[in-house]
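Practice problem: predict the structure.
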Amino acid sequence: MTDSNKWVACWGNATSITNRREAIYAKDLTMRYPIRMPFSGSMLRFRFSNLTGTEPVTLSKVFVNHTPITFDGETGVCLMPGKERESDAISYAVNRGDTIEVSFYLSDYTQMNSGTLITGPLSKGFYAYGDYAEADELPLDLSRHTNWFYFLNTIDVLTSAENHAVICYGDSITAQSWPDYMAQLAFGSNVAIIRRAVSGTRILRQYDCITYQAYGLKGSTRFPIEMRVAGATDVIIQHGINDIIHPVGEDVNPFRPWSDLPTVEELEHGVEDIYVKPAKAMGLKVWSGTLLPIFGWRTYNEDRDAMRQMFNEWLRTSPIFDGCIDFDAAVRSITNPKAFAEGYDSGDHLHPSERAYEAMAQAAVHKLVRHMPRYDHEELF
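Answer:
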C-alpha cells in the first residue's frame, strides 16, 4: 500500500440475531450477494461475522466471482460464535460501477443465526440448493432471491486516498431503502455509503426472548462493533423511535413493560454517551437524523408524539452534533405535521414509502455534500 492509497469500506451491513423460525439451520446451500463498487481499487478484503451465533459456522468455500477469498491462506473459514473474521487482502482490480459477486458454500448443517434483513434497490441476495459458489450463474430451478444477508458484514477496497465512507446507523427505517438511494445519488463521487441498521433496535434496551431477539442489540452493545468502518469520516444517526413506541405494559405484552419507556432526557443522554462521544473519539463527524411521523401507528398516542417532537427539537438544535439531517421535515405533511405527507406513508404509519425514502436520501446527500471536499453536489443530481 502506498501513501496515495488506503483501505475504505465500500459496502457494509450490521450483523444481528436472525428471526427465530421453525428452521434455523441450513445444509448444502450456496449464498450469493451482488455488490456494486462505488470506487475503483486494486485489492479487496472481506469481513464475515458470526457475532450473534451460538455455534461455529463453517464457510466451506468463499469466492468473489471466480477468485478464492482466503483466510491465512486457507480457502475456507470457521467463524467462531460471537466472533468476526477478516479475510486476507485479495489482489482483485475493480472499477467504479463494477458489480462483484460474493458467494459462499455451506456444506454441513449451519446455524443461520447471524444476519440482517435489508431492502433497497442495491440490496438483493440469492441462495441456491447445492454447491454453486464457483458457478457463473445459479441454477434457475434451485435458486431464489433473499433480502437476508447472512455472515457477510463488510467489504473494503484499497483505493485512492481521497475516497471515504459515510455510515448510516439506525433501525428498520435505515435497514430499508434510503441508504441505497443515497448511495445511488452519491455514485460518481468519492463517498461510499455503509449501512449499519437492524430492525426493531432501541438505544437503551434490547429483548432477550426468542419472540423479539431479531429486534437486535441495544445501542451500547452495537455501536462500538458497527463503527469498525475503514475510511469512515461521518456517521448519520437516525435512531430512537422504537424506544418511544415499543412499551405497552406487561398486561398487554409481557416483554414490553412500561418500565422500558425512557424519558426524553434519558434518550438525549443515551445518544450523547453511547453514540456521540465515542464517535467523536473515533474522529467521526456526527449528524443527527430526526425521527419520522408516527400518527396512526398502532401504539400512537399524543404523549408518545410529544416525546418524539421534543427529542427532534433537541436533535435539531444540540451543539454536540456537527449538523442535523431533518428527515422529519423531508417526509411530513404540511397540513398535518404529525403524519406523513400524501404518498409518503408505506401504509403502516411508521415506515416510509419508497418515494419518502428517496426524499430522505436527497435530504442526506444535500446536507452532507455541502460539507464534503473534492466534489460538487450539482454533479450528483
